[in-house]
Specification:
By secondary structure, the chain is of the alpha/beta class. It folds into two domains: 136 residues, HAD superfamily/HAD-like (Rossmann fold, 3-Layer(aba) Sandwich), CATH 3.40.50; 63 residues. It has nine helices and six strands; from the N terminus they run E-H-H-H-H-H-E-H-E-H-E-H-E-H-E. Helix 1 packs across helix 4 and helix 7 crosses helix 8. The chain starts with a strand and ends in a 10-residue tail after the last strand.
Amino acid sequence: MKTFIFDFDGTIVDTFDSTITILHSISKYTSHNISKEYIKKEIRTKHIKEIIKDFNINSAQMLLIMWRIRSELKKEREDMNSITSMKEVLNELHKKGYNLILVTSNIESTVAHFLDKENICVFSEIYYKSGLFNKNKIINKIIKKNNLNKKEVYYVGDEIRDILCAKKSNINSVSVTWGFNSKELLKEENPDYIIDSPQKLLEIH
């Protein structure tokens, strides 16, 4: 059975501008007081590991930044919107009998509230608070638990780390261009599929 494993932020829900605002707010209290425009450019055109290195962010600081982002997004969950036509495409994939699974680094209450608000009830399993760079471990667990054929598993995400994750788990990578990383950056990692609209998910065979 064909299985689609979805990332959440930037892939299903539009949290890009909110995340930029939060990061800009954080930067005001550091030695890197930078503009929103600069932050947008960094996120769109660089791998997150490059950004961490460029700004000399240690592990403790990274955990604090992630906690702050999750906490602030929780406050804004009423205003979160799904990517245009994503809800309809998810429902269509579900009607076709495909298995849909969600893996996210966001917190359960935020994700659950959004899915309830949008009336999205298509995911057979949801995994919360995954790390930035270890989603492949969760995906491997999903594959083993459900006895999935890797050739029929597609990981849908909006960042380079999602492509690398799919490659580590030896499954198909589907990169979406409406999220955090630019289309040009995504292309550099040669995903199996790169799509410009949710409807293109329906054409994947």
